[in-house]
Design a protein that fits this description.
Blueprint (H helix, E strand, L loop, with lengths): L5 E6 L4 E6 L7 H9 L7 E5 L5 H9 L4 E6 L2 H13 L6 E5 L15 E6 L4 E2 L9 H7 E2 L5 H11 E12 L3 H8 L8 E10 L8 E8 L6 E2 L3 E2 L9 H9 L7
Parallel strand pairs: 3-4, 3-6, 4-5, 6-9, 7-8, 10-12, 10-13
Antiparallel strand pairs: 1-2, 9-11, 10-11
């Protein structure tokens, strides 16, 4: 019987094959760029919060052959789909998915303060200011809930990263102030430093719509605002370094 609810897709030039919801949240360049930005060392233990069907964690595992990646997903159907995609790509030995809520103090199978790297693509849109998708799954992936805003996501990243562990996220450039505030130590809780902000310029002369932010838990080092990355030529095609990220699974160019 045909599966009318999902599509069969390929990423990174066919390195990754996966099923995705036909009408829900689907793969995006943001997820692939995020995976390319995670600077994990060999045999690192990595965690993705809000892994969905597994796009970013699968892309990361394709680039870094020795890392182990755990994913957390709130929606049971997406967590199950992610598990099937992990198995379909033969990555059961390195990848796993855990159904859970990033707001919870504990998620079964995951220990706080234990991951070398934690990364996330938090929901972009404030429901009070943006029209929310009528599709429940897409809305849950893209719109902040009142009780799970950007601050909650970054708090969870800090909770699961080990001391001196790395944090990486991608978000709308207009939310950079909120990101920096959430990374600051608050009410006796440890924050992050050595923050590295990478603006993503769609075309030359245009404002950045996205930023990638890297940070180190517990670091006191100052913030660096990098020159950022230009993504497109004037004709709209991707520049070679960015095309290599999206088509071949290359690491994000250093800036």
């Amino acid at each position: 019987m045909p599966d009318i609810d999902h599509t069969h897709d390929a990423l990174l030039g066919g390195l990754i094959r996966l099923k995705q919801p036909r009408k829900g949240q689907r793969a995006s360049a943001d997820a692939v760029m995020l995976a390319a930005a995670v600077a994990a060392k060999s045999h690192a233990q990595v965690l993705e919060l809000g892994c969905g069907s597994g796009v970013a964690m699968l892309c990361l595992a394709a680039r870094l052959k020795t890392v182990s990646v755990a994913g957390v997903e709130l929606q049971p159907d997406l967590a199950a789909l992610c598990a099937r995609n992990i198995a379909a790509n033969g990555l059961d030995d390195r990848l796993s998915v855990h159904e859970g809520d990033i707001r919870a103090r504990r998620i079964a199978g995951l220990a706080p303060n234990s991951f070398d790297q934690v990364f996330a693509n938090p929901p972009y849109f404030d429901m009070a200011r943006h029209r929310v998708s009528p599709h429940a799954g897409r809305a849950a992936a893209r719109a902040e809930a009142e009780d799970a805003d950007l601050g909650h996501w970054i708090a969870a990243m800090l909770r699961y990263a080990r001391p001196n562990g790395g944090l990486t996220l991608i978000h709308k450039a207009e939310r950079l102030g909120d990101i920096l505030a959430a990374l600051s130590p608050q009410s006796g809780k440890q924050g992050a430093g050595a923050i590295r902000v990478i603006p993503l310029w769609s075309k030359a002369g245009q404002p950045a719509k996205r930023v990638i932010v890297r940070a180190i838990k517990g670091s006191k080092a100052p913030l660096t605002l990098t020159p950022g990355l230009l993504l497109h030529r004037p004709d709209g095609s991707y520049l070679p370094d960015i095309d290599a990220v999206l088509r071949d699974g290359a690491a994000l160019p250093e800036v």
